[in-house]
Amino acid sequence: MAFDLPFPPNYGGIIDIYYKIKALHEIGVKVILHTFLYNGKIGAPELETICSGVHYYSRRRFSNPFVGELPYIVATRNDPQLLKNLKADSHPILFEGLHTTYYLNHPSLKKRFKIVRTHNVEHHYYKALEEAETGFFKKYFFRVESERLKIYEQVLEHADVIASISPQESRYYADLFPQTQYLPAFHGNNAVTSICGKGKFILYHGNLGVAENNKAALYLVHEVFSKLDLPCVIAGNNPSKQLQQAVKGNPYITLISKINSEDILKLIQEAHINAMPTFQSTGIKLKLLNALYLGRFCVVNKEMVENTGLDKFCQVGDHALAMADILAKLWAKEFTEADKAMRMGLNECEFNNGKNAIKLESLINAFAPVQ
């Protein structure tokens, strides 16, 4: 059950969902997809090639997002037809994110085998969004939502398995729920395709309409890129007016907006360095996996790689001057075959879609009651 349409797979959680479905399909597991539509999205025929059935539901909208005790992300994702469709068979149910758990503790699903895929510790994630946001209304909404999510997460006791996306998150949930298992992120890469040699620019990318990404982009512009006389690109949709204004004064920084996911992937490959700071170490940043599989050098801060095991593939700069210094030194280097060979370990470690699909199937087989 997906909280958003998993096609095209163009942002974090949806990337994990789409490539999880695809990997399960490739090992012969049949998936019936239930997914919510909003923001003008319509059904995607592409999903029918990897799913044995697809059901769409409209996400509800509240004029007042503060009504009721349930988190807004949960309360807006319920539909009586969804419950009816879930009751039509006896298959295991995979709830993607706390967002989709409205019916997790419903009496009519009591005997069903239920897995919840946690994409973040959601109340930590929304607290970080509150801290990154500058607008009063959104800031207040994120604070209230964080408080509601912290209370609501107790619903996870009704899950037979909690499949957490990162080791850090897995440790958090395991302290509360003994049925927690670590299931690494699924992603769109099967092989390292980084191009040796030198790239054309330093790149930061992300959905710039998200407060966290806007904060990271502004940090780079003011604290890091401003220390370099090197071509830098910030790419992503919905840049804030503050960010647009910030780049105007620097001839070395280019802002690219109105861009699709294919263009982003091309920029990742063309860049000499992917610079990726973050200020919230929640979940796992799938854009880092893309940069490691597709790009050349990756420069991050500690929060980006904390407890992921990916730090050995990156250069880590924990403050602005350290990051600027690393960027300058890497700009003078070529990305070599030896650098690329080191990345090959990615497919042998935990981020292998095929192995993780088998792990998910094994979890279901090990814990699901015999029908």
Defining traits:
4-stranded parallel β-sheet, 371 residues, single chain, Rossmann fold, alpha/beta, 40% helix
Q: Quick summary of this structure?
A:
With 371 residues, the chain is α/β, with parallel strands linked by helices. It folds into two domains: 12-187 and 351-367, Rossmann fold; 202-348, 3-Layer(aba) Sandwich (Rossmann fold), CATH 3.40.50.2000. 40% of the residues lie in helices and 13% in strands.
Architecture blueprint of SSEs:
Blueprint: H1 12-26, E1 32-37, E2 53-58, H2 72-75, H3 80-86, E3 93-96, E4 114-118, H4 122-132, H5 136-152, E5 161-164, H6 167-176, E6 180-182, E7 202-205, H7 211-224, E8 232-235, H8 241-248, E9 253-256, H9 261-270, E10 273-276, H10 286-294, E11 297-300, H11 302-305, E12 315-316, H12 320-331, H13 337-343, H14 345-348, H15 353-367
Parallel strand pairs: 1-2, 3-4, 4-5, 5-6, 7-8, 7-10, 8-9, 10-11, 11-12
Polypeptide structure, described:
The protein is of the alpha/beta class and 371 residues long. The protein has 2 domains: 12-187 and 351-367, Rossmann fold; 202-348, Glycogen Phosphorylase B (Rossmann fold). It has 15 helices and 12 strands. It has helices spanning 12-26, 72-75, 80-86, 122-132, 136-152, 167-176, 211-224, 241-248, 261-270, 286-294, 302-305, 320-331, 337-343, 345-348, 353-367; strands spanning 32-37, 53-58, 93-96, 114-118, 161-164, 180-182, 202-205, 232-235, 253-256, 273-276, 297-300, 315-316. Strands 9-8-7-10-11-12 form a 6-stranded parallel beta sheet, sandwiched between helices. Strands 3-4-5-6 form a 4-stranded parallel beta sheet. Strands 1-2 form a two-stranded parallel sheet. Helix 10 links the parallel strand 10 (273-276) and strand 11 (297-300). Helix 1 (12-26) crosses helix 15 (353-367), helix 7 packs parallel to helix 8 and helix 7 packs across helix 12 (320-331). It is globular and about 65 Å long. The two termini are 21 Å apart.
